Amino acid sequence: MTSATLTTEAKIAAVRAHALRCYNRGWDVIVDAYTDQEIADLTKSARSGRGAIGIMAWEVFEHKRVVREAREQADGIDARLDRSWARYQGLA
Q1: Residue 1 above 50 pLDDT?
Q2: pTM value?
Q3: First-to-last C-alpha distance (Å) of the chain
């Protein structure tokens, strides 16, 4: 190990510590769903804790995007069901 490169365990620890500090800002997915091995695999190119956190930030961003799209789709389905129900009851 050179002084410029952290061990895998140190990168995982940095990511986990940051995820705990930012749990309510979307990082809960890292704490609750990612194993140490998954974090290690994703951050293997990082040379620092900050670099590893940056890589995992992309995972958090993608997770938020997918959740937002799913909610938008569900809202659209709910609206269509509401209109169908209103037509069925003769209200629309």
Answers
A1: no
A2: 0.74
A3: 70
